[in-house]
Design a protein that fits this description.
Rna Polymerase Sigma Factor, Chain: A, 212 residues, disordered C terminus, Arc Repressor Mutant, subunit A, mainly alpha, 62% helix, single chain, 2 domains
Length: 212
């Protein structure tokens, strides 16, 4: 979401929403709803829950538009914080316990550690040979399966880091947790993904390329 909508455009619309401009709210909805939905699907895994959560997020934005302060951080960070909070509340309302990870204890991780981009579409080009294309399909299935096995918190940090390009500090602000917790969740989420993909015959070298 943060990569799709210019911050200035979003801030301008938010100011108009704060003045009860319904047209601006409609424009904001069409610009951001898809991004909210994609992020929340990783957390909730049920389309009907996602639709409800997106509506909850949009209602909160309508009610709190005047509370955003650009001096305190990016608009996308503020918005994702609302989305993450609403997603957690919906999980609680539906009787699902938040998955807690034993790896969330404070572990020092090097800030300069190389991060791997797990977007499997990036491994295939339009000129790929048939064998490579088939491998890409198989990898796509393996990636979907592996992501389904991650905890809610690990999915969230992967999504925010790689798809939304959030910094560690922004993720910590969004998820309301310490900075080191974000680092450890990313570390263990990557480790878990590598372990799961290995079961399907794929490996993830440090450079992020997938081999079989």
């Amino acid at each position: 979401m943060g990569n799709l909508v210019d911050e200035t455009v979003g801030q301008t619309l938010l100011k108009r929403i704060a003045a009860n401009d319904r047209k601006a709210f409609e424009e904001f909805y069409y610009l951001y709803a898809e991004g909210f939905g994609r992020f929340l699907m990783k957390m909730l895994k049920h389309r009907e829950w996602v639709d409800e959560a997106v509506n909850d997020v949009m209602l909160a934005i309508w009610q709190m538009a005047d509370r955003y302060d650009p001096e305190k951080g990016r608009l996308s960070t503020w918005l994702f914080g609302i989305a993450h909070n609403k997603g957690l509340k919906l999980l609680e309302r539906n009787g699902r316990c938040r998955e807690e990870s034993l790896e969330d204890s404070a572990v020092e991780i090097d800030n300069n550690e190389n991060m791997v981009d797990y977007t499997y579409g990036s491994f295939i080009t339009a000129n790929s040979e048939p064998e490579r294309v088939v491998m890409g399909w198989e990898l796509g299935d393996a990636m979907s399966w592996a992501f389904s096995k991650l905890s809610t918190d690990h999915l969230a940090v992967i999504e925010l880091c790689f798809r939304e390009d959030c910094s560690y500090q922004e993720i910590a602000d969004i998820m309301d947790c310490p900075l080191n917790t974000v680092k450890t969740r990313l570390f263990h989420a990557r480790k878990r993904l590598a372990e799961l993909l290995a079961r399907k015959g794929f490996t993830l070298p440090e450079q992020g390329k997938v081999t079989v």
